[in-house]
Amino acid sequence: MRVFRFVLMLVVAASWVRVQGQQAVPATEPAKTQSNGAETKPADNGPAVDAGKVTGSTFESDYFKFTYELPKGWKALDDAARVASNQSLMNGDRDRSAGMTAPLPKKTSTRPPTVKKGPGPASSRASLPARYSLMAASSNGLESLASPVLPRINIWAHQRVSALDNPTDHAQFLASGKRTQVLMPVHEVTLDGNKFVRVDVITPTGEYVSEFVSVIREYLVGFDFRAQSERELAEMTETMKTLKFR
Fold it and tell me: CATH number, domain at 20?
């Protein structure tokens, strides 16, 4: 089971790296139905998973019911661009999911082999968990989720594969990267009554990264901070004290 989760996390990580290199494309991931069975809106027709807005310096997530204060003077990515990137990511995951088929059992037959077309029956298709950006921001603003500017913040939500898909595994995966330097080891913190798992690292590209991950509803929700120095990172992570759940 741990091997399966590790392989799945590698697939998710690889997909996320690909979308970081793309520009935003129209539509919204949470606003449409997904082929992997995860609805962007709950059954009661409530808010979309990535529904949220920034008013002044306050970000509010409608679906996950929390508020968070951005660093003073920071600018959030335009919601239309953000949800467009979410839709692009969902479309890419849907295409990859359609191509991931389970092998059919071999049968002994005297008939000549036939060429199988298409992705195969729906029951044999593997599905990838739904992933969303809830909010992205930088001190000078962002043009898209693909913008590599530093410093920046991304709040994301990844659909949980199962109850075994937990924040600790996600944080350990980040810390175990090749040539990744751990600044602060994986540990638990409590913010406004909710448990988070935190880890701080320096990536092979020199980015200072801090992640706070928690289970909220049926998702892993993460606050991803990226900076150019350890001091800058520390100042950014102080804003987690403004997180409030309702």
Answer: 3.40.1000.10
